[in-house]
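Why do we care about 3D structure at all? Because function follows from shape, and shape follows, mostly, from sequence. That is the central idea of this module. The next example makes it concrete: a single protein chain, its amino acid sequence, and then its structure expressed as tokens.
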Amino acid sequence: MRRRRAYRHSGPTLVSPYGRAEALPRWRRLVGWLCLLAAIGLTTAAAYLVISAPALTVAAPVVVTEDAFKTTPTLLPETVIVAEAPSTRPPANPAERPTISPAQILELLATPPEISAGDKGLNYDPFTLVANRARAKMTSYVAQRGDTIDGIANRYGLTKESIAWCNDYRLALVLRPGDVVNIPPVDGACHTVIRTQSKDIRAIAEQYGVEDPYAIIDSAANDLPDIAPETLLPSGTRLFIPGGEGEIITWNAPVQQDGAGNVVAFDPGSPFSCGARSGGGTRWVNPLPNGSYVRGYYAGHSGIDIAAPTGTPIYAANGGPVLYAGWNNWGYGTTVVIGHGPWSTLYGHMSSRAVGCGQVVGAGQVIGYVGSTGNSSGPHLHFEIRFRNQPQDPAATSGIGW
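And the structure:
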């Protein structure tokens, strides 16, 4: 019989899990015994818990009888209620309640809420915007750099004459930053009572062209008691006359006059002034014969307004040298001024002019065209006649035609 050749394995000996236990390492056999003992312990503990658990019982239903509602109630101990501190409640007497004055209310309403540092990016406006309401009282305005009487009047919806009649006459000529300007509630004039003049309210109303003296008495701006028109008010009393008209105000720029009082230059400091010139004066003609008379000469309005379509020719009302030709910063827009000896004429709000400095024009010559430049609400000619720089009524001048 052929003998099997022995095979020598040079590596470690492999032990089958089904081989003899002695072939396993000692530490593996120790771990196995410990696992077996732990399993036996857990099994024993689980069996003990199942056997020793108490049997579940079902409670019998509870039957409620009428006698259960007839039992005497148990009295609880009396609860002591502690009153709150009286400082947390408003006083019982309304007169003792805290109040806030109207001035404090206005201050609180005018103060915007504080915004925390984390809300800088938010733009909240907590106030309700309401339409402008009619003013009943006099108010004041502090002039800023660049302000003019015209601009302030437009801001408050008033005529510049109303502003001038309720302030120092100097403000009508020169308005400086910081000047306090009195603003009337509506168009009208202001009056200071001088007792020595012995003028009652009726006479004051007539002085300013107001027919009803109760317009002064009932005006909230005056805060007068219920008095009669024949009442003489204390000297120094300041009154506002709604709709009243004061003295004529000269709004023109400065002029240069010769020894006889004749105007020889208009607004000498302006680049549109033509310098000192004299002469002229022939006959008077209508400056805008195709226009419509819309506003006359009266206290506060130193000329007449004649409406016509834009571009309608304007004619020189008299002959003479051109004293001014160009833009006027006193509200007249594009303006031409012509000298006629002791007389001068002004033509305002032109859309364009047809003459310039250095020219001498004749009566009836086209000098410009109707427009609405400057302080104007529509196309028209503002026409003035002055004698030694004093305004005259153009409609009362023979030959003008109005």
